[in-house]
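Illustration: Choline kinase 1.
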Amino acid sequence: MAIKTIESLKGCGSEEEIMEIICAVGSDLGDVKDDVNSLEVIPMKGAMTNEVFEINWEAKNGGGVRKALLRLYGDGVEILFNREEEIKIFECISKHGQGPRLLARFTSGRVEEFLHARTLSAVDLRDPEISALIASKMREFHRLNMPGPKKVQLWQRMRNWLSESKTICFPKDIKNFGLENLDEEINMLEKLLSEGYEDIGFCHNDLQYGNIMMDEETRSITLIDYEYASYNPLAYDLANHFCEMVADYHSDTPHILDYTKYPELEERQRFIRIYLSSEGKKPSNARVEQLVNAAEKYTLANHLFWGLWGLISVS
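Result:
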């Protein structure tokens, strides 16, 4: 059921500012009714960091409905990522034709192009056809030429998060979670993983099913939500995607990860072979195995990364 604008946006910051932005976007569309009573704002489920709404304008002369997506930023996320950097990345990815267009921005959020595609489910990640499409899209995404230093961001981000975790956790939690020794473990892991194969590219870093959309007609894949995107080892991003296959965030127990669902070796090999083949050149078995092994090692970094994220998020 659609919920009228003011009711939907209660408690969402400056309602007046948000409404001005929404009306301005509607005006830019040109063919929508200039009547706030015909405007609908529908809360969308699934977002973890932000509040997300579908905006519907009634078109003039019975022309149907025009849509956009309103994203209201969550509180306290500045600890986890730089919002200004995320906006720059969003705009740059959009210019590359890899994501939704930015229609407007304001103090507490932004309005984006509404993608007429469906968000994938946990089950979709295991569908061989869909998985192959994701693998090809990942390769394309990793090859984006983005602004900023093209060096690994993973380790420094984890160190920053560890420092923040120590600040906000109670002493007993610092001890229980072993945070006193984690600096040393991060250093050790960085050294060990950096010694082997390490191809660097622009990584999404949060490739769970909710951040992947598919157009049912064209079967095209779009990766969305770039809060954690940065240059990193490609093996890390692949490892993250494999780890996300064990999660179902729409179950009754979204916090429980089922590692019986972790992809078997053959499935990981198939995904990486398609990933490497997507540019038209068949990879050698040795190259596939090299990246499969590197991704397996980077699962350790993924667990550590999202473990620290969890400590900060619940504090």
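Reading the tokens back as a structure: Residues 1-11 have pLDDT under 50 and may be disordered.
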